[in-house]
Design goal:
By secondary structure, this protein is mainly alpha-helical. The protein contains six helices and no strands. Helix 1 packs antiparallel against helix 5 and helix 2 packs parallel to helix 5. The relative contact order is 0.12.
Length: 183
């Protein structure tokens, strides 16, 4: 007698349906949201860096334009050309300072306190002891006659300070600069 196969009446094995890729599991939604947020943040940082670079270019070009104007007008009226150079440098520095230091004290700084603030915030001494100390009383002069080396040194100090503010500005309270200038 033949042995009967006990498994012959059983149905074949049923394989489960393949797992669909859509919709993804909740963890994948979370990962996708984090990736989108990280990309948006990176785009925002890159946009801000680009804006800072554009502002830096404009401020430095204002200083260089003032120097070029001084060079052209110096032969005609040296005193007024020098005053225009001082005014252009000082106003550009003040506008950059107001952007980076929104304290209301910055707008009122003048004279030695203004130079002390520029030195402290730029980590330099070009303004109170260097070639840019003429900014302290530049707007009160009747004329300002300077040579090419001094004009270039003034604009170089201003450009260096502006670049420092846009690349890595130190945190300094303008009132602290006022107090130090008073001592």
């Amino acid at each position: 007698m033949e042995a009967e196969d006990p498994l012959k009446d059983l149905a074949d094995i049923h394989l489960p349906a393949t797992v669909s890729w859509w919709p993804p599991a909740p963890v994948w939604w979370l990962v996708a949201a984090l990736v989108v947020a990280a990309l948006a943040y990176a785009a925002l940082l890159l946009f801000r860096r680009w804006q800072q670079g554009q502002r830096l270019k404009v401020a430095v070009s204002e200083i260089r334009t003032a120097l070029a104007s001084w060079q052209q007008a110096n032969a005609i009226d040296a005193g007024q050309a020098g005053l225009a150079l001082l005014y252009a440098c000082n106003s550009t520095l003040k506008r950059v300072a107001l952007v980076h230091y929104p304290d209301s004290d910055v707008a009122s700084l003048h004279g030695r306190a203004w130079l002390a603030f520029l030195d402290q915030s730029g980590l330099t001494n070009d303004f109170s002891k260097g070639p840019a100390q003429v900014l302290a009383d530049g707007s009160y002069r009747r004329s300002f006659i300077t040579d090419a080396a001094a004009a270039t040194a003034l604009t170089t100090a201003a450009e260096r300070w502006i670049s420092r503010q846009y690349t890595h500005p130190p945190q300094l309270s303008p009132s602290a600069a006022k107090q130090e200038a008073a001592t």
